[in-house]
Amino acid sequence: MTRVKRGYVARKRRKNIFTLTSGFQGAHSKLFRTANQQGMRALASSYRDRNRRKRDLRRLWITRINAAARNNGISYNKLIQNLYQNQILLNRKMLAQIALLDTNCFSTIMKKINE
């Protein structure tokens, strides 16, 4: 049986792992086995947290809208219900930005809803 030299393939695979873990501390970026484990863990965490970020931002927007709505004397769920009934198409991100940066505009929207 002939000898198989697979240095290039193995080196390429290891290099990809070390590139992924280049900013990690200590053995997590120096030793292949621990770097491989930490790289897989980092990729799994980043995948999970991309969806978690969307969830967290939506919660933040709802909290901001609720606070601004209660300052105008209405609860969050009544506000959303009235927005749909009056066919005002503003998503939660835009409503939160308006509530945070332009309270006069938000008050105008509230008056439009309550008519």
Offer a concise description of the structure.
The chain is an all-alpha fold and 115 residues long. It has one domain (7-114): Ribosomal protein L20, C-terminal domain (c-terminal domain of poly(a) binding protein), CATH 1.10.1900.20.
Q: Could you explain the architecture of this structure?
A:
It is a single chain. The protein has 115 residues and is an all-alpha fold. The chain has a single domain, classed as c-terminal domain of poly(a) binding protein (Orthogonal Bundle). It contains six helices and no strands. The protein has helices at 7-20, 27-30, 32-71, 76-85, 92-101, 103-114. Helix 3 packs across helix 5 (92-101). It starts with 6 loop residues before the first helix and ends with a helix. The mean pLDDT is 93.
Task: Estimate the helix proportion, in percent.
Answer: over 70%
User: Which CATH architecture is right?
Assistant: Orthogonal Bundle
CATH class: Mainly Alpha
Major beta sheet summary: none
Distance between the termini: 87 Å
Give the radius of gyration.
26 Å
Strand content: under 5%
Structural class: mainly alpha
| Low-pLDDT segments | none
CATH topology: c-terminal domain of poly(a) binding protein
Overall geometry comes to rod-shaped
Number of β-strand runs: 0
